[in-house]
Write a structure and sequence with these properties.
By secondary structure, the chain is an alpha/beta fold. The chain has helices at residues 19-30, 36-39, 45-50, 84-95, 115-128, 147-154, 170-173, 179-193, 209-221, 248-261, 278-281; strands at 34-35, 55-58, 99-104, 133-137, 158-160, 196-203, 226-231, 265-268. It is globular.
Length: 284
Amino acid sequence: MNKMTRKPDWLKVSGFTGAGYRQVDRLLSGYRLNTVCQAANCPNRGECFNRGTATFLILGPLCTRNCRFCDIKSGRPEGVDSDEPARVAAAAAELKLKHVVVTSVNRDDLPDGGASHFAETVSQIRRQLPSATVEILTPDFRNAPQAIDIIVKARPNVFNHNVETAPRLYRSVRPQADYQRSLHLLRDIQVRSQIITKSGLMLGLGETTDELLEVFNDLAEVHVSILTIGQYLAPSKNHHPVVRYVPPDEFTRLGAEALKAGIKKVLSAPLVRSSYKADDFANL
C-alpha cells in the first residue's frame, strides 16, 4: 500500500479562528453539546462555524466501534443523556438554523441502536424551531431491526447513512460494518417512508474507478437522492493510510458519473464532508 503523507495545496484550509467561530464554540460549550465537526477533526469546521452552522453529535463522545478511518474515540459509552435532545434544539434555535443536521456515534450497546434518541431529537427540534428542516446521519443500527420503524415514524426531512467506501475495502476500513446492510437500510427507509435519502463516500483509500461506478449504481438502485464525495484524510499514523490524494478535476468527473448513474444531487470535491453545505442540498 502506497502511503502518502504530504498534503497537496488543494487540501489546505484556513485556521479555526474568527468571531463567528468563537461564538458557535462558546454556544456549544454552554449547552454541553458535542459536534462531529470537533470530535472528528473536520477540516471545514472553521468555515462552517463562521457561517453559524454545526453538525450536532448526540449519544455521547465515545463510539462502540473502532473504524480505521475515523477520529472519534472508541470505548464504553455512558448512559443516554435524556435532556440532550432539548439542548440540541435550543442551540439550533439560538443559531437560527434553517436546516439542522444531527449525527451520532455508533451505540451497539443500546437495544435500538440509539434510534429513539434520534427520534426525540427530531421532535424537540420541530417543537423549538418549527420552520427548520431536519437531517439525521445515522449508524447502520446493527442488531436493532426496530430502529427503522422508529426513524420512519420520526420522519426527518433527510435520512443520511454513509457507505463510506467500496465493499472490497470494508474489512480494512470499517470491519464492523457491512456494505449490504447499509444499502438495505437506505432502501428500507426510502421505500417505507419516501424520506429523502443521502449517502457519502471517501476517496483515497485504495478504491478503483470501476468500484466507485458500481457503488454509484448500487446507491441509485436503492433510490439515494443525494451523494457527497470527499477526500479521506488520515487522522493519525495509527489510522488507515491515505493511498492517494485525488485531484479536484477527478472529483468533478466522478461527480458527473454519479449524476449519470441516477443520483439527483452530488457534491464532489476534496474537502466535501457528509454535512458540508447540507442546507443547500436538502431540497430536491
